[in-house]
Specification:
Elements lengths: L1 E2 L6 E19 L6 E22 L2 E16 L16 E10 L8 E10 L11 E3 L2 E10 L7 E4 L7 E6 L2 E4 L4 E3 L5 E4 L4 E3 L2
Length: 199
Amino acid sequence: MKYQPAGFNGHFGIALFDLKRQNVPTTVPGITPTLQNQTGEITSRGLELEAVANVAPGLKMVGAFTTYDLFTSKDANPALIGLTPTNTPQQKGSLWADYTFQKGPLTGFGFGGGVRYVGKSLPIPRIRTWFLRSYSAMRRSITNGKTGVRPLNVINVADKVYVASCASDTSWFYGDRRRGDGKPCLQVVSADAIVRRQH
């Protein structure tokens, strides 16, 4: 559902959802070599909020937040039913603002910035005491409306070392190191001590 207040240049949105992904590959336990079939099911229920506002000429702000309960509802391994799949955060949020000059010598030149939040996730569903910690990431951009001029984006400006995902208890994957290109990128600003153990 979307709502636009009278006289407001923007809108608000809210969505409740209850989704099921079927035919998910599952590993049949106790069989060597490994055997997979497509009998699994993942259920996702939650709430999504969105706000878009054109605050002033050239200035736009966008915010979004999602929280959901995502779990395995069918699996060949009964021990995994009811557990959250690997690397699936339960909350996500973002806030972005950008400004483009509308007149004068800088017409068409713009810059923006924002932050994205990713909640904690379970790297290994069957082990409930280990988590990938939540982290925040900042995106920065500089754009130019002139033809042939590429935008400037830098990823991980602080060159932060952090764990982005995990495939198993022995397979951990790091996020991107510092680099720049002409595409939208993210800079990690707080990802220290990503992996923790709860007592």
